[in-house]
Design goal:
Neuraminidase, 4-stranded antiparallel beta sheet, 174 residues, mainly beta
Protein backbone atom coordinates (compact mmCIF):
# COMPACT_ATOMS: atom_id res chain seq x y z
CA UNK A 1 0.00 0.00 0.00
CA UNK A 2 2.75 2.49 0.94
CA UNK A 3 4.54 1.78 -2.38
CA UNK A 4 1.37 2.71 -4.29
CA UNK A 5 1.10 5.95 -2.34
CA UNK A 6 4.74 6.75 -3.05
CA UNK A 7 4.34 6.07 -6.78
CA UNK A 8 1.16 8.17 -6.89
CA UNK A 9 2.95 11.04 -5.13
CA UNK A 10 5.88 10.90 -7.56
CA UNK A 11 3.67 10.78 -10.68
CA UNK A 12 1.37 13.51 -9.33
CA UNK A 13 4.26 15.82 -8.43
CA UNK A 14 5.89 15.29 -11.83
CA UNK A 15 2.69 16.25 -13.67
CA UNK A 16 2.11 19.31 -11.46
CA UNK A 17 5.58 20.70 -11.96
CA UNK A 18 6.37 19.63 -15.49
CA UNK A 19 8.68 21.89 -17.44
CA UNK A 20 8.18 23.02 -21.00
CA UNK A 21 11.40 23.19 -22.98
CA UNK A 22 11.74 25.83 -25.67
CA UNK A 23 14.64 26.17 -28.08
CA UNK A 24 15.79 29.78 -27.82
CA UNK A 25 18.70 29.66 -30.24
CA UNK A 26 20.83 27.06 -31.97
CA UNK A 27 24.55 27.61 -32.37
CA UNK A 28 27.59 25.47 -32.99
CA UNK A 29 30.18 24.49 -30.41
CA UNK A 30 29.92 23.72 -26.71
CA UNK A 31 28.27 26.57 -24.82
CA UNK A 32 29.94 26.87 -21.42
CA UNK A 33 28.65 30.09 -19.86
CA UNK A 34 25.58 32.29 -20.30
CA UNK A 35 24.49 35.53 -18.63
CA UNK A 36 21.80 38.12 -19.28
CA UNK A 37 22.86 41.63 -20.27
CA UNK A 38 19.29 42.97 -20.19
CA UNK A 39 15.83 41.60 -20.95
CA UNK A 40 16.57 41.39 -24.69
CA UNK A 41 20.23 40.34 -24.83
CA UNK A 42 22.44 37.64 -23.43
CA UNK A 43 26.13 36.84 -23.71
CA UNK A 44 27.48 33.32 -24.03
CA UNK A 45 30.82 31.60 -24.37
CA UNK A 46 31.84 28.61 -26.42
CA UNK A 47 34.58 26.50 -24.93
CA UNK A 48 36.58 26.75 -28.17
CA UNK A 49 37.25 30.44 -27.48
CA UNK A 50 34.34 32.37 -28.93
CA UNK A 51 32.10 34.83 -27.08
CA UNK A 52 28.87 36.12 -28.55
CA UNK A 53 26.04 38.53 -27.85
CA UNK A 54 22.59 37.18 -28.74
CA UNK A 55 19.57 39.43 -29.22
CA UNK A 56 16.62 37.33 -28.06
CA UNK A 57 14.09 39.32 -30.12
CA UNK A 58 15.89 39.31 -33.48
CA UNK A 59 17.78 36.01 -32.85
CA UNK A 60 20.92 37.63 -34.27
CA UNK A 61 24.26 36.85 -32.70
CA UNK A 62 27.35 39.01 -32.82
CA UNK A 63 30.95 38.11 -31.90
CA UNK A 64 32.36 40.08 -28.98
CA UNK A 65 35.89 40.59 -27.66
CA UNK A 66 37.25 37.92 -25.31
CA UNK A 67 40.60 36.81 -23.87
CA UNK A 68 42.95 34.54 -25.80
CA UNK A 69 42.40 31.03 -24.49
CA UNK A 70 44.28 27.76 -24.47
CA UNK A 71 41.70 25.23 -25.60
CA UNK A 72 42.91 21.88 -24.31
CA UNK A 73 40.81 18.99 -22.98
CA UNK A 74 38.10 20.55 -20.81
CA UNK A 75 39.77 23.96 -20.90
CA UNK A 76 38.95 26.94 -23.06
CA UNK A 77 36.68 29.95 -22.71
CA UNK A 78 34.63 29.05 -19.67
CA UNK A 79 32.16 31.22 -17.74
CA UNK A 80 30.94 34.73 -18.47
CA UNK A 81 29.36 37.16 -16.03
CA UNK A 82 27.79 40.53 -16.80
CA UNK A 83 27.81 43.08 -13.97
CA UNK A 84 26.42 46.60 -13.56
CA UNK A 85 28.29 48.73 -11.07
CA UNK A 86 27.05 52.27 -10.45
CA UNK A 87 27.33 54.02 -13.82
CA UNK A 88 29.54 51.39 -15.51
CA UNK A 89 28.97 47.90 -16.86
CA UNK A 90 31.56 45.13 -16.88
CA UNK A 91 31.94 41.68 -18.34
CA UNK A 92 34.03 38.98 -16.65
CA UNK A 93 35.39 35.84 -18.27
CA UNK A 94 36.98 32.76 -16.73
CA UNK A 95 39.23 30.89 -19.13
CA UNK A 96 42.21 28.59 -19.42
CA UNK A 97 45.47 30.13 -20.57
CA UNK A 98 49.05 29.05 -21.04
CA UNK A 99 51.47 30.80 -18.70
CA UNK A 100 55.00 31.92 -19.56
CA UNK A 101 56.34 28.67 -18.09
CA UNK A 102 53.99 26.70 -20.41
CA UNK A 103 51.53 25.59 -17.71
CA UNK A 104 47.80 25.82 -18.42
CA UNK A 105 45.82 27.47 -15.62
CA UNK A 106 42.41 29.05 -14.98
CA UNK A 107 42.37 32.84 -15.13
CA UNK A 108 39.87 35.68 -14.79
CA UNK A 109 39.60 38.70 -17.11
CA UNK A 110 37.49 41.84 -16.92
CA UNK A 111 36.49 44.35 -19.58
CA UNK A 112 34.23 47.37 -19.68
CA UNK A 113 30.94 46.91 -21.52
CA UNK A 114 29.78 49.83 -23.69
CA UNK A 115 27.64 49.93 -26.83
CA UNK A 116 27.45 46.12 -26.95
CA UNK A 117 31.24 45.82 -27.06
CA UNK A 118 33.96 44.72 -24.63
CA UNK A 119 36.71 47.33 -24.18
CA UNK A 120 39.92 47.34 -22.16
CA UNK A 121 39.89 43.61 -21.50
CA UNK A 122 42.65 42.50 -19.15
CA UNK A 123 43.50 39.51 -16.99
CA UNK A 124 42.94 40.38 -13.33
CA UNK A 125 43.71 37.00 -11.75
CA UNK A 126 45.75 33.93 -12.68
CA UNK A 127 45.40 30.85 -10.50
CA UNK A 128 48.23 28.66 -9.31
CA UNK A 129 46.08 25.58 -10.05
CA UNK A 130 48.00 23.62 -12.63
CA UNK A 131 48.62 19.97 -13.33
CA UNK A 132 49.72 17.66 -16.10
CA UNK A 133 46.06 16.89 -16.86
CA UNK A 134 43.77 18.79 -19.21
CA UNK A 135 40.63 18.49 -17.11
CA UNK A 136 38.69 20.17 -14.30
CA UNK A 137 39.55 23.81 -14.99
CA UNK A 138 36.24 24.94 -13.46
CA UNK A 139 34.70 27.43 -13.32
CA UNK A 140 31.88 29.79 -12.40
CA UNK A 141 31.81 33.49 -11.60
CA UNK A 142 29.33 35.10 -9.22
CA UNK A 143 29.12 38.60 -7.77
CA UNK A 144 27.24 39.16 -4.53
CA UNK A 145 27.24 42.73 -3.30
CA UNK A 146 30.77 44.01 -3.79
CA UNK A 147 32.35 40.53 -3.62
CA UNK A 148 33.37 38.51 -6.66
CA UNK A 149 33.57 34.73 -6.29
CA UNK A 150 35.43 32.48 -8.73
CA UNK A 151 35.45 28.70 -8.58
CA UNK A 152 38.50 26.81 -9.78
CA UNK A 153 38.43 23.11 -10.63
CA UNK A 154 40.69 20.61 -8.90
CA UNK A 155 42.54 20.05 -12.21
CA UNK A 156 42.29 16.31 -11.63
CA UNK A 157 44.55 16.45 -8.57
CA UNK A 158 42.13 16.06 -5.68
CA UNK A 159 44.73 16.14 -2.91
CA UNK A 160 45.70 19.68 -3.92
CA UNK A 161 42.15 20.84 -3.11
CA UNK A 162 42.92 20.18 0.57
CA UNK A 163 45.94 22.48 0.64
CA UNK A 164 45.31 26.11 1.56
CA UNK A 165 48.30 27.21 -0.52
CA UNK A 166 46.71 25.78 -3.69
CA UNK A 167 43.86 27.23 -5.75
CA UNK A 168 42.90 23.73 -6.97
CA UNK A 169 39.30 22.91 -6.07
CA UNK A 170 38.62 26.32 -4.51
CA UNK A 171 35.98 28.99 -4.44
CA UNK A 172 37.95 32.22 -4.24
CA UNK A 173 36.62 35.55 -2.99
CA UNK A 174 38.27 38.44 -4.77
Amino acid sequence: MSMKILLFAIVFSMSCFSQKLELVHKTDGIIWGIDMVDESNLVFTNRDGRAKLLNLKTKKEKAINHPKVEEVGQGGLLDVHFHKEKDKEYIYYSFSEKTKDKKVVTSLARGEWADSQVNGLKTIFTSNAHSETSRHFGSRIEIIGDQLFLSIGDRGVRDQAQKLSSHNGSVLRM
